[in-house]
Amino acid sequence: MKKLDGFSAIILISLIVCTVWVWFEIFIGRSGDAPQFYFLDVGQGDAELAIFPGGVKVLTDAGPDKKILSSISNVLGGDRYIDIGIISHPQLDHFNGFNYLLDNYRFGAFIFNGRMDSPAAGEWHAFLDKIKSQNIPLIALGAGDKIEYINGEIGFLSPNKDFVQSAELNDTAMIEFIRTNEFRALFTSDAGSNIEDYLIKNGANLAADILKIGHHGSKYSSSEGFLQAVNPKVAVIEVGATNTYGHPTADVLSRIASVAAKIFRTDQNGTIEIVGDNQKLKVYTEK
After folding, report:
1. Distance from CA of residue 158 to its chain's centroid?
2. Cα angle: 184, vertex 69, 74; to 5 degrees
3. What would the pLDDT profile of 86-136 be if each residue is shown by its tens digit?
4. DSSP-derived secondary structure for 43-73
5. pTM for this one?
6. 187 contacts: CB under 8 Å, gap ≥ 6
7. At 152, is the pLDDT very low, low, confident or very high (cuts 50, 70, 90)?
8. Cα–chain center distance at 118
9. For the structural domain made of 21-285, what CATH number should be given?
10. Quick one: the chain helix, strand, coil %, rounded to 5?
11. Is the dihedral of CA 70, 61, 15, 54 positive or negative?
């Protein structure tokens, strides 16, 4: 697999916070320039936008449909360029929003796990056709690869060469560990407890301040051992208000509570913004 080396960061800029209120602050004991993370309200799907020092924008997943357009516009305003799009795995609720974004935004490159097949074959091939027509690079990354930027990196913990071939598409999901001067974040996509157990057994350093809860709060993710290894201050669940899966489950909510993490949910809070400020996490919500 290829390695994408570094962002070329330009000038440090200040971005206007356009959300509503500070929910809480938590001491985390680190300082320095920090990115802003947005967990976008896209219904029953995932979409995480990180804005790094220098204004570099990385969007991981884009939800199932065009709802991403209004959610991301509320953050970016008239800015129509996104440096990198990451597709955690080719399931509709993670990638299809990119089909709508590609009609309205320019992308520098896309990263994916290397799996070219998708249950949503029509939408997946439409995505591939669009990026080909726009000459946008599509780069396969996996476990051990990383993207480096000013004072930090995005490291990929999974999938490895075995998981990426799994018949269970959730096993192929890209897991991102983001390190910055201010905080650490772990995005787990739809990875289940089998992937979580693998990471623990293989000695991965999972400790993070922010955890994107796996698979929208499914009972098959966010095991007790995994949550203890991560020990997050903040847990974010991206989930649709009217989903028919029962997400998030009571079991998962109870397990998160057992590690004393503050829980935020896009179905209840709308888009959620997290920033580092003077050794604290500040969380802003849309509602």
Report:
1. 14
2. 65
3. 999 999 999 999 999 999 999 999 999 999 999 999 999 999 999 999 999
4. SSS--EEEEETTTEEEEE---SSTHHHHHHH
5. 0.89
6. 48, 60, 88, 175, 176, 178, 212
7. confident
8. 20
9. 3.60.15.10
10. 25, 30, 45
11. negative
Residues present in the chain in total: 287
Tell me the helices (H) and strands (E) count for the chain, helix number first: 8, 16
User: What pLDDT, on the 0 to 100 scale, is given for residue 193?
Assistant: 97
154 strand-pairing partners: 147, 178
The rounded distance, in Å, linking the Cα atoms of 44 and 200 is: 28
Q: Are the C-beta atoms of residues 268 and 23 closer than 8 Å to each other?
A: no
CA distances from 256 to 213, 228, 233, 235 (A): 9, 9, 10, 8
pLDDT number for residue 11 = 23
Q: Domain spans of the chain?
A: 21-285
Q: Tokens standing for 226?
A: 């995994």
DSSP state letter for 138: E
Least confidently predicted of 160-164, 231-235, 243-247: 243-247
Amino acid letter, 279: Q
Is the separation of the CB atoms in 176 and 113 below 8 Å?
no
Q: In terms of Cα–Cα distance, which of 65, 251, 54, 84 is closest to 154?
A: 84
- Two tokens, residue 275: 């920033």
> How far is 191 from 169, CA to CA, in rounded Å?
9
What's the pLDDT tens digit per position in 49-97? 999 988 999 999 999 999 999 999 999 999 999 999 999 999 999 999 9
